[in-house]
Amino acid sequence: MTFLKMGAVSALAMMVAGAAFAKSDISVAMQLEPPHLDPTSAAAGAIDSVLYSNVFEGLTRFGPDGSVNPGLAQSWEISEDGLVYTFHLAEGVKFHDGSAMDAEDVKFSLDRARAEDSANAQKALFGSIAEVEAVDATTVKVTLSEPNGSFLFNMAWGDAVIVAPESIENIKQAPIGTGAFKFTNWVQGDNITLEKNGDYWGTPAKLDKVTFKFISDPTAAFAAVMAEDVDAFVGFPAPENLPQFEADPRFQVILGNTEGETILAMNNKLAPFDNVKVREAVAHAIDRQAIIDGAMFGLGTPIGTHFAPHNPDYVDLTGMTQYDPELSKKLLAEAGFADGFKTTLKLPPPSYARRGGEIIASQLRAVGIETEISNLEWAQWLEQVFKGKDFGLTIVSHTEPMDIGIYARPDYYFQYDSKAFQDLNSELSVEADPAKRSELLKKMEQMISEDYVNGYLFQLAFPTVAKKDVVGLWKDQPTQATDLTAVHWAE
Amino acid sequence: MLRYVAKRLVSLVLSLIVASLVIFLMVEVVPGDPASFMLGLNATDETLNALREQLGLNGTLVERYLSWVGGMVRGDFGTSYTYRTPVAEMIGERMWISLPLALFALTLSTLIAFPAGIWAASKRGSLVDTVVMGITQLGVAIPNFWFAMLMVLVFAINLRWFNAGGFAGWDAGFFVAMKSLTLPAIALALPQASILARVMRSSLLDTLSEDFVRTARAKGLNKRQALWRHALRNALIPVLTIIGLQFSFLLAGAIIIENVFFLPGLGRLVFQSISARDLIVVESVVMLLVFAVVMVNFAVDIAYAIVDPRLRTRV
Q1: Three-state secondary-structure class, residue B201
Q2: Cβ contact A382–B36 (<8 Å)
Q3: Are A140 and A107 in contact (CB under 8 A)?
Q4: How far apart are CA A57 and CA A90, in angstroms?
Q5: d(Cα B246, Cα B236) in Å, to the nearest integer?
Q6: Separation between Cα atoms, residue B93 and residue B106, nearest integer Å
Q7: Quick one: three-class SS letters along A386-403?
Q8: I need a labelling partner for A470 at 20 to 30 A (CA). Which of A76, A337, A351, B250 fits?
Q9: Phi and psi at residue A256, in whole multiples of 5°?
């Protein structure tokens, strides 16, 4: 047999084998690597990206559309006064180390998150819990100190997943959860692998093996997808390359929304931004579409308030701050700044901020506002802008889901201090009736928009590039998860 | 010779002490709190304090410096703030990529540069000389990250001979691992080879015009014999210096190439740690690189003395 024939035969054999066994593993790339693997003690979204609902599960969980669904808790009752939640846990749930997941583990997890020395980045989620009680193996009673309309929503966050006391010691390197996949290996700086959990209590995963690869550089990301080193790239970092993937029959491009409201934040306590007329002038000086086109290659949905457009309670208020440089100049003159003024624009590293900042600076210059741009690293940004409140303007995307409540914190970096808003927020936090909550949320959106607290730019888009026959990836990002439990290859 | 080595050792230790002070102070005065970086926008002060306490960030500067240096002397590099694993372990893992990569690149560079430089020098003024010098001129001028991207485009995206990046790991077998290091090594080696070839050529030409070579020729050696037996050995001193410098450069300076090829090496570790304010990792890796540079210089000094005995007395 000649070499050529042998080659042909083995190629044929491989093709037949390939058809007989559908591919059961996948490699998914993303930009950021998790610093460690404990979702309950860091703010890094990358931890959730890898582990949320794949490895760890909470009492409730987010669906692909952001809805709050049953998780480890299959059902619950809420007392009349809204203070007592009785959760009924799924039967026969086991952690990946084989130990049973029961009410005691839930108690341990919630008590750990709200403890005094807790390093949970979202400790506020647990703030209203007064007591957690394990009634029996599958029943947990959580008593709140005051009614909390978002409690079930809060319990769906990655920071509220259920962990076991036996495995907590090594959770940062060897996470042990209850999910459809279990953690197998982490090559730091390169990849994390998960494999199917054969003992999963719910609908089993369709894939046998999952590899997450971390590729931070946009050019390298492009090369990795093009060379087919990876099967999918979630949160693809170079929007300028998307048309090329769309045109390539090997790939599909999925454009989704995130919970990231990208805003031009203003320092409401710093003159002249303490004058609402000036803030209004800034808002009218901004051409959102030009920023979306120029900085994001057309990706992003314009917003007029701090709320996600895909949320049913969203009110489109973009009309209140339409692009109108003439009006902007007029408002500035009324505020006593006919000749404009000078301020700072401090930009964190992401490209929406760096590229968007240049465009905004030129739009502001057109109405007489000169900005001194400084590019900061994240750590510097957190120190100077977020903590030190030493800024005039800044651009940042707020990626926490449903975070309009930050406007009720007068010491938050943009320093909006409105009694009326704070009252609405307190009302919301104790309201459980969905219709009333919706009404309150709409009022809150309206109020911050009318007060021109910040310049509302756009909702950050979430592009995913995947091979054509990958099915079941999440389109939107209601939380920073890459839920692979339903992902598989098309037949 | 012993005195020479001893003196070199003392200056080595002094450099290390000074370097540790400078690194520590520079890294510690950079603004940015590691704890708030890790906990993000929603953290409460109480949580931040709890974390700072856990990380040992609440001590004074002097306390922290002493515990860092003291630890290093015992081989304990501390625990990474963000990854929460021992820094020594992390460096060890990354080293197994950066060190082979640097050695691979250095080998390639030497293998290309020596023959090219010697060939060009021996045929001074000929077409060969002009072509070799032209190519090396280009090699020096082309930025290596650009060359790296070009190689990815050709060999990974179009031809599919190599992966676009990543590291298969030594577990996957020697050849598979070396394969993932090949493109990065070539990208790193080419500019180095160009520089080295030029240095080799000019240094060889310098020695060829010296008296002892003329004497050798007068004794009846032909040009080729004179070059190989007498000139080459003496021309090696500047070349060794450059190789020493290049090795430290390759080890520390591969950051961009490691990013282009998403290789989890030391360079990328430093880069990530700086932006995450993982100070202890930054300090330890930089210290280690300084140590490597100092050691390489030490080795080069010793090599000088071996190549040129006159240097031993000229301390």
Answers
A1: helix
A2: yes
A3: yes
A4: 12
A5: 15
A6: 21
A7: HHCCCCCEEEEEECCCCC
A8: A351
A9: -125, 175
Cis check for the bond before A272: say yes or no (omega within 30 of 0): yes
Neighbours of A450 (CB within 10 A): 13
The Cα A427–Cα A421 span in angstroms is 10
Token pair of A425, please? Answer: 């927020």
Asked whether the beta carbons of A482 and A474 are under 8 A apart, the reply is yes
Give the per-residue pLDDT at A482: 94
Q: Is A121 helix (H, G, I), strand (E, B) or coil?
A: coil
Parallel, antiparallel or unpaired: strands A84-89 and A139-144: antiparallel
In whole angstroms, what is the distance from residue B85 CA to residue A188 CA? 11
Cα gap A215→B260, rounded to integer Å: 9
Rounded distance between C-alpha atoms, residue A108 and residue A261, angstroms: 34
Out of B32, B54, B165, name the one closest to residue A119 (CB).
B54
Q: Is there a contact between A220 and B31 if contact means CB atoms under 8 Å apart? A: no
Average pLDDT value over all residues in chain B: 85
Helix axes B266-275, B87-122, angle to 10 degrees: 130
Contact B262 A117 (CB under 8 A): no
Structure token pair of residue A328? 């902007």
Residue pLDDT, tens place only, B37-85: 777 777 777 888 888 887 777 778 888 888 888 888 888 888 888 888 8
List all residues 6 or more positions away from A263 whose beta carbon is below 8 Å from its beta carbon. Answer: A306, A395, A396, A397, A398, A454, A455, A456, A457
Distance CA A158, CA A52 (A): 6
A-chain residues near B39 (CB < 8 A): 42-43, 119, 121
Q: Using alpha carbons, list the distances in angstroms from residue A111 to A50, A107, A130, A482.
A: 24, 6, 10, 27
> Which residues, in sequence order, are CB contacts of B240 under 8 Å at separation 6+?
B300, B303, B304, B307
B32: left (phi over 0), alpha (psi -120 to 50) or beta: left
CB contact under 8 A, A377 and B36: no
Top residue of B30, B33, B37, B161 to mutate, by most chain A CBs within 10 Å, is: B37
User: According to DSSP H, which parts of A57-126 are helical?
Assistant: 103-114
Strand-pair partners of A373: A345
